[in-house]
Amino acid sequence: MKLQKATRGALFALLELVRYPAQQISAAQIAERYGISANHLAKVLRDLTRAGLVESVRGAGGGYRFCGNAKRVTLYEVISLFEDTAGSTSRPDPGDDTEIGQALARVMNEINEIAAATLASITLSTLLKIVDRDVAARPAARPSADAPTGPDPTPGT
Amino acid sequence: MAKTAPAQRNSADTATLAVRTAKGSDVGAVADLDARITGIAKLAYWEDMFERYGKRSNRYFLVADDCGDCLLGFILGEVRAWEFGSPPSGWIFALGVDPDCRLRKIGSRLFAAMCDCLAESGVDTVRTMLARDDGLNMAFFRSQGMMGGPFIQLEMPVAAKRGRGTEADSTG
Asked: Domain holding B43: CATH number?
């Protein structure tokens, strides 16, 4: 399963904003950190604003901040904003109506269901715990090396 | 006998929470709590679980209570070895927390206590299995640090194979 650019940008942005809740971070800062297009990310952030997950803060030092519940918002919810996770809009492919096509679809559905269940079980907060564990497990890790200036990491959950 | 918590109790206080090994007198409260969570009453099952898990080594039946008063949660686990080639590992196969007392870290405390028991038994891995649509427990175990493991659960209706045991089968 490969996520689309917009989805990856949304997840990068949300996780960055959850990780540093005391800061407003601009689209340009996030884009630079993850090596993605700032223009594209700005559009993604507008979608996230409409979805009620982030809000923009105007003025000097302005940017975006997360306004959802990181212990409740799952990867599946975010991905569903940008991709057809249910497969409901995908058009039938040639051969789908054959016996072999139907058996193949059943196997692919099994994979999709497992993927969906996995994504629906991981909240933004849980994903950041995975990040923290990975960082802690690295020898001579420098967890604040890629943090924005004056980080104020989210309290442990 | 410990009672299950009344519905109005939803304190954020965790100071009075205690996790301990289940006693025979807890079985009724565990069965009541499980019935509230699952909607299925099965006292005989829990009595059997206590006989099999509450009194043997490398098998653990833990409960969380509020100063010995109200039973707020339970967890069961054991050490299993060499099933499908797996070296000895810990298995958690039941977890329940009073729905009115969520967000008090009761599940986290029970899970940590179970991990302590399993570690003392000498295993370094803990596993569980969940229904794919059991989002609540799946999210809980994920939040505790569990990830997908190397095993995949498979199943089928046994009726599909009944009476075919003596037929030749090219795939073995």
From this structure: 3.40.630.30
pLDDT for B45: 97
Is B141 within the bounds of a domain? yes
Q: Residues B105-115: pLDDT tens digits?
A: 999 999 999 99
- Centre a 10 Å sphere on the Cβ of residue A108 and count the other Cβ atoms it contains: 11
Q: Do A122 and B135 touch (CB under 8 A)?
A: no
Looking at the partner chain, which of B132, B133, B142 has a beta carbon nearest the beta carbon of A126?
Answer: B142
**Is residue B170 domain-resident?**
no
Q: Do B139 and A121 touch (CB under 8 A)?
A: yes
pLDDT at A154: 40
Query: Would you say the ipTM is above 0.85?
Result: no
Burial class (CB in 10 A: 0-12, 13-18, 19+), B121: middle
For position A151, what pLDDT does the model report?
41
Residue B2 pLDDT > 90: no
Residue A54's nearest CA partner among A33, A81, A76 is: A81
Q: Determine the structural domain holding residue B66 and report its residue range.
A: 3-160
Q: What domains are defined for chain A?
A: 5-85+94-137 (1.10.10.10)
Nearest-by-Cβ selection for A126 from B132, B143, B148: B143
